[in-house]
């Protein structure tokens, strides 16, 4: 902590330095000035926490020094030590924030007490400043999220406006708004380079985009600068001694520098890939505004974004209607070719998906995947894209329909092939490799239009991965069926049921029965019976063994059933087989 002693008499300054135990007060540096003008320079440069000053001094006296500190709202504590018991000086001391007025010669106890009080006051206020600063930092961190949620709520639930009207008027100056318009900035068709750059930090992308937009939605900064200059010029003509006037000026200055908006951009909390631009002033200039914002995107992010422009509606009740119109403008735009980046709502513009259905191509896709051949998969995808290219218009509505069909197709395959559910959950374009990508992102070319080439490449890769998974599962199943066959061959001589085998291999009876026949061309029960009869034929060569013994040794406890099975497979009974010497 630092203290500044201001007195034109050096011996007074020396006396004050000797009268106080500065170290116990936590004061480590003592500075000196012999007039008010030098004191001002020291205060500006070193910012001492405590100023002890005389009142009668050359150049600038103590009253002028205190007034100067008060005018600049200097937070340092002020103690006056004066040789004049003058009411005017005492009044000026209190008026300009002095804490104590001590008379010369200085009483050591009074000086010590005044300094202890000044130090305590400074430390208390310092702690409060730190707490306030911390709260302000926390508030500033939370503010963007707060505004995002507030404006999102206004669009989805306009009735919430009544509860936040005063807050919005104070922050954005929209209390007089009568009409409004919603613009949607769509992230689902942003360029791949930007998508890849921010794929693991989508929050940063939203922060960057909304900040760029809000730079253009704030009041012209030049106007604010000119307003402040005009106020300062008027302030120079006022009576500087008028405390009330200065307070009034400060209030106006604060009002002047408050930022005013013609609209506000925020992240829409009801969507994973939309930025909202809510406009309420100068609505006739929307096109020019959006053109400037797009140019800023191009300069900063090296890309543009599709913008859906909603209808002008009453504020705030019409915000939801305007949003729906902006969403429809984006949904129905033609992404097969790039005509514009701004899309206005047209209620007559609809492009139904028509008769082109992905299901018509399912069999060719399925056979290509089952072949496991990348070239076959590529040709199947190519035939589909050729049909897409013949369409006059492709919209996001088309893409959503095909995405749904694609997912349903894959889920059906998963069930039929037993390769696990969920392979149809990803979008058309393999976004499982980009976990934070928009759920309905579209493969775009450099001009922002739909890239059939990129779509075909991504779709072929996706289907190739499904083919690899199906092939791996088929190989695994073949191995499992082989293990089951081996298990039967090793355990044919005991009672063995399909349920026993299912329990052994943790598979369902139905699955084992179906897959075993697909793999070996015969039912599992026939396979087991054939193994048992082959073993029985060997045992029948031993005349010491009865037919019942042979049956039991191959896992069949019922002699009659054994004979029936044997005759069915060999054409003769076990006894006839033995007599004919068939075992030899």
UniProtKB/TrEMBL annotation:
Keyword Cell cycle set for record: no
An MF annotation (GO) of this entry: DNA-binding transcription factor activity
Organism whose genome encodes this protein: Cohnella thailandensis
Keywords: Cytoplasm, DNA-binding, Phosphoprotein, Transcription, Transcription regulation, Two-component regulatory system
Sites bearing 4-aspartylphosphate, chain numbering: 54
SMART domains linked to this entry: HTH_ARAC (SM00342), REC (SM00448)
Record-level GO cellular component terms: cytoplasm
A single BP term in Gene Ontology: phosphorelay signal transduction system
Protein name per Swiss-Prot or TrEMBL: Response regulator
Major localisation: cytoplasm
Disordered: region residues: 425-446
Keyword Cytoplasm: yes
Compartments reported by the entry: Cytoplasm
InterPro entries in UniProt: CheY-like_superfamily, Homeodomain-like_sf, HptR, HTH_AraC, HTH_AraC-typ_CS, Sig_transdc_resp-reg_receiver, Tscrpt_reg_AraC-type_HTH
Domain HTH araC/xylS-type residue range list: 482-580
Span of domain Response regulatory: 2-119
């Amino acid at each position: 902590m630092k203290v500044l002693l201001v007195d034109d008499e050096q011996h007074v300054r020396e006396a004050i330095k000797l009268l106080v135990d500065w170290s116990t007060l936590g004061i480590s540096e003592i500075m000196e000035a012999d007039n008010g003008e030098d004191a001002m320079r020291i205060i500006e440069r070193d910012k001492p926490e405590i100023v002890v000053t005389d009142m009668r001094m050359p150049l600038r006296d103590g009253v002028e020094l205190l007034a100067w500190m008060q005018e600049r709202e200097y937070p340092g504590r002020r103690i006056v030590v004066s040789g004049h018991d003058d009411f005017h000086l005492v009044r000026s001391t209190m008026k300009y924030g002095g804490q104590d007025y001590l008379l010369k010669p200085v009483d050591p106890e009074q000086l010590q007490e005044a300094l202890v009080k000044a130090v305590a006051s400074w430390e208390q206020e310092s702690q409060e400043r730190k707490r306030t600063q911390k709260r302000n930092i926390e508030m500033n961190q939370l503010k963007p999220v707060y505004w995002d949620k507030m404006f999102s709520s206004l669009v989805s639930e306009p009735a919430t406006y009544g509860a936040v009207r005063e807050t919005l008027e104070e922050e954005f100056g929209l209390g007089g708004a009568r009409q409004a318009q919603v613009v949607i900035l769509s992230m689902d068709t942003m360029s791949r380079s930007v998508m890849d750059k921010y794929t693991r930090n989508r929050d940063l992308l939203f922060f960057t985009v909304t900040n760029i937009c809000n730079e253009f939605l704030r009041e012209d900064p030049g106007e604010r600068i000119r307003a402040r200059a005009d106020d300062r010029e008027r302030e120079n003509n006022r009576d500087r001694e008028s405390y009330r006037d200065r307070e009034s000026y400060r209030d106006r200055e604060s009002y002047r520098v408050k930022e005013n908006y013609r609209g506000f951009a925020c992240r829409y909390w009801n969507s994973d890939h939309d930025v909202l631009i809510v406009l309420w002033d100068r609505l006739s200039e929307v096109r020019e505004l959006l053109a400037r914002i797009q140019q800023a995107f191009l300069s900063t992010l090296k890309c543009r974004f599709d913008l859906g422009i909603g209808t002008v509606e009453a504020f705030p009740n019409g915000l939801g209607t305007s949003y729906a119109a902006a969403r429809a403008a984006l949904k129905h735009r033609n992404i097969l070719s790039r005509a514009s980046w701004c899309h206005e709502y047209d209620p007559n513009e609809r492009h139904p998906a028509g008769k082109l259905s992905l299901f018509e191509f399912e069999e060719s896709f399925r056979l290509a995947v089952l072949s496991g051949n990348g070239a076959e998969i590529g040709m199947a995808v190519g035939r589909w894209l050729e049909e897409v290219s013949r369409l006059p218009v492709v919209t996001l509505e088309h893409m959503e329909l095909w995405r749904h069909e694609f997912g349903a197709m894959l889920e059906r395959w998963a069930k039929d092939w037993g390769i696990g559910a969920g392979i149809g959950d990803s979008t058309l374009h393999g976004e499982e490799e980009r976990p934070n990508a928009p759920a309905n992102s579209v493969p775009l070319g450099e001009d922002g239009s739909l890239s059939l080439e990129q779509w075909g490449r991504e779709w072929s890769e996706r289907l190739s991965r499904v083919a690899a998974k199906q092939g791996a599962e088929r190989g695994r199943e073949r191995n499992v069926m082989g293990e089951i066959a081996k298990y039967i061959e090793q355990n044919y001589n005991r009672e063995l049921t399909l349920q026993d085998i299912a329990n052994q291999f943790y598979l369902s009876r139905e699955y084992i029965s179906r897959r075993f026949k697909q793999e070996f061309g015969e039912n599992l029960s026939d396979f087991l019976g054939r193994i048992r009869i082959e073993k029985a034929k060997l045992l029948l060569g031993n005349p010491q063994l009865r037919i019942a013994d042979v049956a039991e040794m191959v896992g069949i406890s019922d002699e009659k059933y054994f004979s029936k099975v044997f005759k069915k497979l060999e054409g003769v009974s076990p006894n006839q087989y033995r007599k004919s010497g068939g075992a030899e």
